[in-house]
Here is the input.
Amino acid sequence: MLKGSHAFSSFSVNDLQKAKDFYGRILGLDIVEDSMGLSLQFGGGESVFIYSKGNHTPATFTVLNFPVGSVDEIVQELTAKGVRFERYDLPDLKTDNQGIARDPRGPTIAWFKDPAGNILSVLESRRQA
Here is the structure.
């Protein structure tokens, strides 16, 4: 029934202007803005929609993952732009001083938050944008 649909994901923020600045200027994404919100444009024609919500509550899970060639390089570049990476010291999840998890059972990954508190990640993957 929905197999042929061009589905897309969306999530909310509490301030569209801050989101536009963060996703466009800091992360360097292409953005299409309309009266409903922001559409983040990715390689291959994919997109994610961001909308403003007055009673926004940040997601407690990762809402957007960015496959990259080198997490170390991206973490360094984003840190220089003021992005703060999350630090975890849990029994099943540990990050280093840069906020990078290097568990041999999973991908090298680092988590950070957008201005609205939503969790994003960069992770090393063979499939890149």
Remarks:
- The longest strand covers residues 62-68.
- Residues 16-26 form the longest helix (11 residues).
- The helical segments are 16-26, 71-80.
